[in-house]
Every structure is written in C-alpha cells, then in structure tokens.
Design brief:
Blueprint: H1 2-16, H2 23-33, H3 40-50
Helix pairs in contact: 1-3, 2-3
Length: 54
Amino acid sequence: MRHAWLTDLIVRIHSAARGVYGARRVHAELALCHGVVVSHGTVELLIQRANVLA
C-alpha cells in the first residue's frame, strides 16, 4: 500500500520537474518538501518498477 502511494508521489514529482529529476533529487524532494521519510534505495527501486527514467 505504501509503495503504491510512494510510486504515485514519485511520478508526480518527476513530472512536475519536467522529467529532469533523477532518484537523488526525487529522494531529496520527498524528504524536504513533502516530509516523507523513505530510504534512497526504496526510491530507486520504485522508480525502476514504475519505469519513470526510461
């Protein structure tokens, strides 16, 4: 359930950045702007599963 919510948020952040943000910037945006505590590895995994950077 949390992964589905995080994936949606990651896709929205990536789209809002016009597709420029990678995993590090998305992770920073989650932590600093949205207050979401999640590991960098989880962000990378969800980005790969969502096929965001392809």
